[in-house]
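Lecture 7 notes: from sequence to structure.
We start with the chain below.
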Amino acid sequence: MTVRGRWAVAISALAAVAALALLFWPRPLEPVDVAGQAGAHQVRLVVGSPSVGARDVTVDVTGAVERVVVAPTMAEMGHAVAPVTAAPAAPGRYRAAGVEFFMAGRWDVAVTVHGPGGTEDVVLPVLIAPRGRES
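Predicted structure tokens for the same chain:
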């Protein structure tokens, strides 16, 4: 092979590697934003960076609320993590810090709203990406 041929092969290989890197380079994840109804309460759950690890979760709830608890489970795998009580962040907004999603896949997040009229639940689906896909 000539020197020119070697250079052409090297440049082609470099271009192929660059194209693959661009194609598979991790991109920032879109936040998960799901909503549902817990009795009389409208509930909206937001996971800002839905990838494996401890994540902060924001819960917006309508109506009179005394306490909000977030409890993720992965039913297909038989996994559950300890429930996290969300702290008030603003009127109608609560923040659950360090909610653990220890594996990628679909998680069902139970949001329990404790209010003066009793306790209501809603289960919301959250898709968690593999580690390394954080924004």
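Points to note: The chain has a mean pLDDT of 88. The two ends are 45 Å apart (CA to CA).
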